Amino acid sequence: MKFVNMTRGVALANNGKIATSPWLRLKGLLGTKGMEEGEALLLRPCQSVHTFFMAYPIDVLFFDGNYRVVHLCSSMPPFRVSRFVMRARFVIELPAGTIERTATQVGDLMSIETAE
Questions:
Q1: What letter does residue 52 receive in the DSSP assignment?
Q2: What's the average model confidence in pLDDT over 33-59?
Q3: Which end of the chain is more exposed for a tag (fewer CB within 10 A), N or C?
């Protein structure tokens, strides 16, 4: 999957995966050693995330049902819990620094493109 910030005209990730089952959402990025630029994990449904037992920080974008950013966490360190975002319908976890590199802000519109 490819995640594109349509407002900024920039790709957030070219190698995205999706976690929709309870087990996959709970596991998330646990057990990984890091994320490369261009990687991402979409968690649906999701209104809060944690970084317990992770060894690296991540950027987290929270989206409403219209694919608009409603909250973001830049470089969320290990062993933290994000706030509960009532309006969020899904979350994308990205390598730390992606939010800054892409200048993504609350209100930006995103698209999801699937590989053919």
A1: T
A2: 91
A3: C
**How many Cα neighbours within 13 Å face the side chain of 24?**
10
Return the amino acid letter for 85. V
3-state helix, strand, coil in the chain (%, to 5): 10, 40, 50
Domain boundaries, the chain: 2-113
pTM: 0.91
Outline where DSSP puts E strands in the chain: 2-5, 10-13, 15-19, 39-43, 58-63, 69-76, 90-95, 110-113
Residue 108: closest CA among 29, 22, 26, 11: 11
